[in-house]
Amino acid sequence: MKGRLLADILKGKKLLLIIGGGIAAYKCLDLIRRLKERGVNVQAILTKGGEQFVTPLSVSSLSENKVYQELFSLTDEAEMGHIRLSRENDLILVAPATADLMAKMASGIADNLATTTLLATDKPVMIAPTMNSQMWGHAATQSNLSVLKERGTLVIPPADGDLACGEVGTGRLAEVPDMIKEIEAFFLSSRASSPLMGKNITVTAGPTHEAIDPVRYIANHSSGKQGYAIAAALSARGANVTLISGPTALSAPDGVEKVAVISARDMMDETAKSLPADAVICVAAVADWYVDGTPDQKIKKQNGALPELNLIENPDILKSISNHESQRPPLVIGFAAETENVINYAKTKLAKKGCDWILANDISGDVMGGDDNQVHLITAEAEDTWPHSSKIDVAKKLTEHIEEYFKDSE
Ligand code: CTP
Questions:
Q1: Domain spanning 2-192 has what CATH number?
Q2: Catalytic residue among 28, 165, 282, 355
Q3: Mean pLDDT score of the chain, rounded to an integer?
């Protein structure tokens, strides 16, 4: 079955948890554990109020990430902590969301790291309010709630029951399984509304190996990480992804159909077989040549005489898909791995191959095999330099661009 299972919907997601000051803050510790079990990367901001109920050490131990506390911490602000935190996560969850935090959010007050981050974010925000039932029912809180809802803030409603103040009423922080359900529902619905839902996308990845004889081959340093990350990000948005991969140490991302190949010629055949497709993304570092007439037996050394290798150029997969006569996909994307003159060479490649977009990357450092990448998106009309980031974030950003493309073409 293509597509992801409900159980996997949270895998690889990034969540920023803002822990407000309420006695129920202790539930956040269990929430972090349950989210981590589901493969979520949790970062946390602990407000001054939150610190009264849980310790930074317990939050950082469970989240396995640094805990952010002070707006004017020199180290955090040297890296523009609030801006970065507000942008690099898929969802911000405020739990417990106190009456005070809700009021500040509704009025746009930015007087600490949590509120500044909430004002600076361009990501969806979800709140899980908790307070005394009188405070919850107060016209001021209800008016703030309406303002927040109108602006798109998602709300995990407080539950009824015994409150910490000894009263009974509405105002208990939702239970952890209910919060998890709401978070899953959010990611499911945003995935269901993605224009990538049901689109067929082929991704080539990894190196190819070109046999010299039964024991030796020509290869390169590609790890496949960038291509696999792209396949995972597209699949997470509902695309049916066929990942045609040369030899790598990686396993297929959840929900992705992997077709393992060895040589460039096999990769060409499998890519052609995957047509028709809505998009083809050639990330593979395809070997440029194969050896003609590989012998059946191992080549032996011959008293210093060098073996003759007759090299033949491999088929250019990207070029042939871009120029396919009958089944040219609407969107074809290539990579340009360069060690110098990156943008100019990439522009030439875009024209030469006939694809729609090229992601140009400078591979003179440790990009091949490493976890980070620095790319420039080149199209016929524009070029855009993306910040140096992880291959996973490059994949997510590319996925957002592809979503925009399909949204506009609908
Ligand atoms: N590509 C391909 N088939 C090939 C060679 C390259 O599909 N036989 C694709 C790669 O997957 C990448 C793009 O073409 O998307 C550019 O690959 P790159 O290695 O940078 O360029 P080459 O075409 O090999 O050209 P050169 O080695 O001269 O830079």
A1: 3.40.50.1950
A2: 165
A3: 92
Q: How far is the CA of 238 from the centre of ligand 1 (A)?
A: 28
Distance of alpha carbon 171 from alpha carbon 134, whole angstroms: 9
Q: Is 222 helix (H, G, I), strand (E, B) or coil?
A: coil
In whole angstroms, what is the distance from residue 198 CA to residue 29 CA?
Answer: 36
pLDDT confidence of 13, banded at 50, 70, 90? very high
Ligand 1 center–CA 170 separation, angstroms? 61
d(Cα 147, Cα 61) in Å, to the nearest integer?
Answer: 35
Task: Check if 2-192 and 200-409 are the same fold.
Answer: yes
DSSP string, 38-62: TT-EEEEEE-HHHHTTS-HHHHHHH
Band of residue 216 on the pLDDT scale cut at 50, 70, 90 = very high
Tokens 């979503």 identify what position?
403
Alpha-carbon span 96 to 99, nearest angstrom: 10
Enumerate the domain spans of the chain. 2-192, 200-409
pLDDT in tens, 355-364: 999 999 988 7
Q: What is the percent of the chain with per-residue pLDDT over 70, rounded to a whole number? A: 95
336 lines ligand 1 (CB under 6 A): yes
Say if residue 228's pLDDT is above 60. Answer: yes
Looking at domain 200-409, its CATH class is: alpha beta
The verdict on the CB of residue 231 being under 6 Å from ligand 1 is no
CA distance 273 to 276: 8
Closest approach atom of ligand 1 to CA 321? 7
For 36, 57, 140, 224, 236, the CA distances from 11, given in Å and listed in that order, are 9, 24, 38, 20, 9
Write a three-state SS string for 378-389. Answer: EECCCEEECCCE
Whether 28 is a known active-site residue: answer: no
Side-chain-side CA neighbours of residue 104 (13 Å):
19
8 A C-beta contact, residue 185 and residue 45: no
Q: What is the pLDDT of residues 142-163, one digit of tens each?
A: 999 999 999 999 999 999 888 7
